[in-house]
Specification:
With 258 residues, the chain is of the alpha/beta class. The protein is built from 10 helices and 8 strands. Strands 1, 2, 3, 4, 5, 6, 7 and 8 form an 8-stranded mixed beta sheet that branches. β2, α5 and β3 form a beta-alpha-beta unit. α3 packs across α4 and α9 runs antiparallel to α10. It is globular, with a radius of gyration of 18 Å. The structure holds S-adenosylmethionine (SAM). The site of S-adenosylmethionine (SAM) has 26 residues, from α1, α4, β2 and α6.
Length: 258
């Protein structure tokens, strides 16, 4: 049984305004594998900037259905441990690892990363892919990720920043790039690279359309929850609009000092 705060943060991490949506998330998101981050984008960043030695290990916090871990294992031979609180997502992650022939490199476990992050240590890489505020404020998140990485290790953080001249967007609290830079420095980390991957409006639009269709099916099955499903679809649309117009999705590659 999940406590109220964890449930609220889980809902927020998947762009929902209410924890009541949680039992319906597996149905709503059944057509998507990547739930936030792009595995190929992260693999490309690592390939360009990091020397991947045999036995290189990664911890994927809030791994969802394992899209990033499976990409890093199959493309770069990285040994990944993924943790996610949604058992249904973990089941899919294991199936995907088998499908891609990387079960021997991927371990997926159901668990709460708020508890796990204190005991998981010594990784070459820690991934926090579009998980939002589950581990606290941005400063707390950086501190927690740093504690799980070995000296000289790396962090891949998928978040966003807002251009200096935009008003704070409605559906999230975003930092400017300069604010990120200052926070990264305060955390004692170095910014090695920032993903310059192109926007993917077609993929985003397709994902949104899948979710909208599934929400319609749920509304037909559970008309008493119509408002819940409509609000969920609206939150998704607001986030896609923000990403298209107001904020810049970004993957930060950070390094912990030796
Ligand atoms: C937007 S999804 C991103 C998933 C994955 N990183 C990806 O990019 O495909 C956020 C994930 O965080 C997970 N999550 C939220 N709160 C969590 C918690 N306390 N412990 C573990 N996972 C959590 C959700 O279940 C969800 O899979």
């Amino acid at each position: 049984m999940m406590d109220k705060d964890t449930a609220q943060k889980l809902a927020q991490s998947l762009t929902a305004d209410s924890a009541d949506i949680i039992p319906f998330l597996p149905y709503l998101l059944q057509d998507l594998w990547e739930l936030g981050s792009s595995g190929s984008e992260m693999a490309d960043l690592l390939r360009r900037h990091v020397s991947i030695t045999p036995g290189f290990t990664a911890l994927d916090l809030g791994c969802g259905k394992g899209a990033v871990s499976v990409a890093l294992a199959s493309r770069l031979g990285i040994r990944c441990k993924g943790i996610d609180i949604m058992e249904d997502f973990i089941r899919t992650a294991k199936q995907k690892a088998a499908e891609y022939g990387v079960s021997h490199l991927c371990e997926f476990v159901a668990g709460n990363i708020i508890n796990a992050v204190g005991s998981e240590q010594g990784y070459d890489l820690v991934i926090y892919g579009a998980v939002g505020g589950v581990l606290g404020t941005r400063a707390e998140i950086l501190r927690a990720l740093k504690s799980a990485v070995r000296p000289g290790g790396y962090i891949l953080l998928d978040d966003a920043y807002r251009p200096d001249d935009t008003e704070p967007p409605l559906s999230g609290e975003y930092l400017t790039f300069e604010e990120w830079r200052a926070l990264i420095e305060q955390a004692g980390l170095s910014l090695i690279a920032l993903s310059d991957a192109p926007e993917r409006p077609d993929d985003d639009a397709r994902d949104f359309e899948c979710i909208r269709r599934r929400a319609q099916e749920l509304t037909a099955a559970y008309p008493q929850h119509r408002d819940l499903f409509e609000r969920y679809v609206k939150s998704q649309r607001d986030e896609y609009d923000d990403l298209a117009e107001k904020i810049v999705g970004a993957v930060f590659l950070l390094k912990k000092p030796e």
